[in-house]
Structure formats: C-alpha cells, structure tokens
Amino acid sequence: MQAIVTAVSSSPGHSFSKSNRGVIRLLAGLGVEGDAHLGTTVKHRSRVAKDPSQPNLRQVHLIHAELHDELREVGFNVSAGAMGENVTTRGIDLLGLPAGARLLIGASAVIEVTGLRNPCVQIDRFQKGLMKAVLGKDEQGNLVRKSGIMAIVLQGGEVRSGDVIRVELPPGPPRPLAVV
C-alpha cells in the first residue's frame, strides 16, 4: 500500500482539535501557516511556561488514520484533526520511524521526524478514557505512545489529501523516537 495523506488540518488558536482544510502550506523552519504552533521556538503552552526559547520540535503533528480506525472500533468518535494533528496519514508506520527520518510529501514539502507526541490530560477532556486508549504496553512492558509523531519543516510546500508520502531514512543506526 502506498503511503498517503488522508487529511490536513490546522487551527489559529490553541484548541485541542484542528479544522480540516483543503490544503495546508508548510513553511520551512516554522511549521503550518496559520496554525497556533507556527514558529521557530516552542508554542505548546506548557513548554512556553517552562522556557519559551526552546526550539520548536513540534511544528507539524502527524497521526496515522489506522489509529482512528482502531479507536472507533472500541467506541471512540474520532476523525481527522480531532486529536490535534495537522497531517493524517494512511499506509505508513509513523510510530516505527526513527528520529531524523524525512518525509517527502506531495510535490515539494519535506519534514523531519523529531519524536513522539506525549498525550496530555486534554485528550481525556476531549473524550473520557481516550488517554488510556492511546497508551499501551509492548511485549517487554514498555509504554507505547500511539498518539502520533512530531516533525519540523525542512522544505516548505502545499500538502493536501491524496498526496503521496515518501520516506527517506537517516544514515547510520536508527535512533528510536522519544517524546518531544
């Protein structure tokens, strides 16, 4: 199956969910044009409170549509953008990508995976019990965060539903994703 974008979303305010759009524009070094998380330094409110000069490693949030499918099967009402992602994908193992992997999206956009999204209490405010549903354990008992990955924009461009996603793995041994 070819990896594709199934939806794009953004929000000018710090709301939990983002509205679906026909197209979003990624801006190199900044993020999603018109989105509350646009910028070179952190925009997530809890991180700004700690140190507003930290680099923004969370310019673009991606979630795999397969997670939405999984959550709907157990009774949650989720759709693209509902969990705050900018780009919803299908056919790519986002959580299995190493840090530093590059995603070439559509005609010109290039983003670099920085790490995992750590779900916060807002997720349970959105739908009770959703936090537990997006956290799991692997065979060794390690915590697995399923609520998507974060990236920075290396090369800007427009991204829309139906765009193909190509993966370029970084050189050297893979670095597992950590929370950013």
TrEMBL record:
Looking at the Swiss-Prot or TrEMBL record, what is one Pfam family this protein matches?
MOSC
Where along the sequence do coiled-coil regions lie?
Answer: none
Q: Can you tell which superkingdom this protein's organism belongs to?
A: Bacteria
InterPro entries per record: MoCF_Sase_C (IPR005302), MOSC_domain (IPR052716), Pyrv_Knase-like_insert_dom_sf (IPR011037)
GO molecular function annotations of the record:
catalytic activity; molybdenum ion binding; pyridoxal phosphate binding
Q: Where is the MOSC domain?
A: 18-168
Read off the PANTHER family from this record: METAL-SULFUR CLUSTER BIOSYNTHESIS PROTEINS YUAD-RELATED (PTHR36930), MOSC DOMAIN-CONTAINING PROTEIN (PTHR36930:SF1)
Please identify the protein, giving its name as recorded. Answer: MOSC domain-containing protein
Give the organism, scientific name: Microvirga tunisiensis
